[in-house]
Design brief:
This protein is an all-alpha fold and about 180 residues long. Helix content is about 75%, strand content about 0%. The chain has five helices and no strands. Helix 1 packs across helix 2 and helix 1 packs parallel to helix 4.
């Protein structure tokens, strides 16, 4: 028969107790395999299977019994924590969905205002074009008016010169004014 070390047996039983209590030190909580027991106890898996079969089988039976039994305090605590975290995840997903909805609304509003700004810019460009055309027309009308006034002045001067050349000139005689009698 193979010799069994009492220290190894003690470590295996302590590891089994920690695993079943939900407080393992070297493996993740919830690992209930023989491999997990070997790792938690710090023994070689082959040793556990060959030299410490009684402890291995006792662990396997304890796991089967625990599966049908009430939850340990640690399992209840972890289950409660899982439920809290699932509720938090659900709340955060709803919050994220709401924020995405608000973001979509802001995006639509921004796109609307961008379109409005573009329309206003086009209208402003048209008005600037109309204003420039009106100023050009006004300046052209002023230029025509100034040309017409110059032509009128020139025609008046020519008419005056013509009259001076072609019409007989009258000579004015200066009469002396005499005082009246009796004055």
């Amino acid at each position: 028969m193979v010799e069994r070390d009492s220290n190894v047996v003690r470590r295996i039983r302590e590891a089994q107790a920690r695993i079943l209590a939900g407080t393992p030190e070297h493996i993740e909580v919830g690992v209930t395999s023989v491999r997990g027991l070997a790792k938690e106890a710090g023994v070689n898996l082959n040793w556990l299977n060959r030299q410490y079969e009684q402890e291995r089988d006792a662990f396997t039976e304890a796991v089967r019994a625990a599966a049908g039994a009430d939850l340990t305090a640690r399992e209840v605590e972890l289950t409660s924590r899982i439920e809290e975290l699932e509720a938090e995840v659900k709340r955060l997903k709803a919050q994220s969905k709401e924020r995405l909805g608000r973001a979509d609304n802001w995006k639509a509003a921004a796109e609307h205002f961008i379109r409005e700004v573009h329309v206003v810019k086009l209208q402003l460009a048209r008005e600037v074009g109309r204003t420039e055309a009106a100023f050009k027309a006004r300046n052209a009308a002023k230029a025509e008016r100034d040309t017409a006034v110059e032509a009128m002045k020139q025609a008046y001067d020519e008419l005056h010169a013509y009259e001076v050349e072609h019409l007989p000139t009258r000579t004015a005689t200066i009469h002396q004014l005499r005082p009246r009698d009796g004055a």
